[in-house]
Amino acid sequence: MTRNKPGPKMKPKTIEKILSRTRQESECRIWLGAMHVQGYGMTRHKGKMRTVHSVVAELKYGIEAPGRYSGKRVTRTCNNIACVNPDHITIVRAGSINEGKNYVRGRFSADEIRAIRKEYDSYKVKYGMVKYLAEKYNCSVPLMSSITRRQIYKRVKDET
């Protein structure tokens, strides 16, 4: 005999239920619920915390969203990480996202990363610089902190 987990049964998610927790911004539907530190919408789905765009892709295409090492990625055609509009969400081959672009990873080009790091390194007093740069480049403070500490975009080498 198996025991059911205590607590209320979770109703299955639907695209309509997800879209009810968004606001319209031009053609995008911006997620208003819980957010990951990097700006991705988060929701509980099938007992696990998941990014909302991957849940929408799963509901839209009727297949489980691709895993981390499957060679495929869920992405948006609008490049707005908070967007959950089903018309903007697509599944692509992992390498095809950045083909033909000068991007190493994510939303910044290699030249932008070099400019951010150069500006950060040029100041002797670092207090407040990460927040200033985050506002200047329109991104979160934790993301900018990771860039300036070279935790991400590791393949972008500083100009010598």
The dominant shape is elongated
Alpha-carbon distance between the termini?
67 Å
The major sheet is characterized as: 2 strands, antiparallel
- How would you write the strand order of the largest sheet? 1-2
Q: Would you tell me the overall average pLDDT?
A: 80
Order of helices and strands: HEEEEHEEEEHHH
Q: What is the share of helical residues?
A: 25-40%
Structural class comes to alpha+beta
Low-confidence stretches: 98-105
Count of discrete domains: 2
Strand content: 15-25%
> What value does the Rg take, in angstroms?
19 Å
How many strands? 8
The number of helices is 5
Kindly describe this structure.
This protein has 160 residues and is of the alpha+beta class. The chain folds into two domains: 15-97, no CATH class; 103-148. The protein is built from five helices and eight strands. Strands 1-2 form a two-stranded antiparallel sheet. A two-stranded antiparallel ribbon has the order 3-4. Strands 5-6 form a two-stranded antiparallel ribbon. A hairpin with a 2-residue loop joins strand 3 (42-45) and strand 4. Residues 98-105 have low confidence and may be disordered.
